[in-house]
User: Fold these one by one.
Assistant:
Number 1:
Amino acid sequence: MLKEFAADLHIHTCLSPCADSEMIPPNILNMAKLLGTKIIGISDHNSAKNLQAMIEASRNYEILVLPGIEVQSKEEVHVLCLFERLKEALEFQDFIYSHLPQKKNYPQYFGHQYVVDAQGNVKGEEERLLIASTDLSVDEILKNAYKLGGIVIPAHIDRNTFGILGQLGFIPEYLRVDAVEFSKNISLKEARGKFPFIFDRFPVIFSSDAHCLKDMVFQKTYFLLKEPTFEEIKKALIGIGGRGVVLRE
Ligand SMILES: [Zn+2]
Ligand SMILES: [Zn+2]
């Protein structure tokens, strides 16, 4: 028996310098609960440091938290990488950190990079600047995320900056991505009209890319699944056994 689960696979926490300090685990989870979002992906820029707190906090909710990272490639493309467990996400973070420039964050210019606990108390700040390009190509990011069993989705492809179409002009045939993501800046109708070739080629999701709580209101993607698990989402993106992605305006 398949059921629909509302999903938002791209949400930032207060670790991302560009995100609001209100983006702490209890607030994000309470907002998701309020909205009826059953599956959320947490994906800070180039880092996994708030994932443990998010997963710990989610134990009190009926919400599946997918640990992820939004990686910035050397071509300045944002790629959403989501994993089944924290372990893989942390392993992926080590790999990403070894390819991220050793630049210091200046909070007064870029914003704070808060590392928090499950209650949202600030434990410290990540000193390394997270909004920077890694020296990895999209292809290298993909291969390494797949090695860890991840789901890989080029982010906000409708955006000129940091979107794969804006940066590369196209999605190369050899890139075996699981889906592509549209941002909250484009309606489903507009996306279908402007990017029909994308809908023909890939499973499509829409995400909020929330940097503050009110961004999370944006909700268009539903997964048709047996139960809300990482494996079921993988199957839905392939379309196994009637599972799939349902998009609503
Ligand atoms: Zn992005
Ligand atoms: Zn983002």
Number 2:
Amino acid sequence: MEWLKTHRNDAILIAALLLAGGALLLWLGLTRQAGGFAQVRIDGETVLELPLNEDAEFVLGEGEHTNTLVIKSGAAQVIAADCPDQVCVRQGAVRYNGESIVCLPHKLIVSIEGGGSNGVDGSTG
Ligand SMILES: [Zn+2]
């Protein structure tokens, strides 16, 4: 019965390692997800910082240069703009650290800062 004892100890050790690894990953995921926000810059100047965990809608710019930015379900997206190329609208939603939406005609940059980089949906609604 000696072999059984040895194997059981191995199994317990592996299970413990898996649990510890899983907890660490979960912790990293939660802490990285928290604090994610969309930084809005117009002409190089930061005008807004919007937390991704709060749904919101903003009309950025003024006069004939506007972009409608929506924060929804942890992602930022320009849903409407009156720029000629509509590149910012076509870029779709961004949610991960380092992603950005750029509207060159309006000198607008929306970049995600401090968000998670994995597929974990940490949105608290
Ligand atoms: Zn645009």
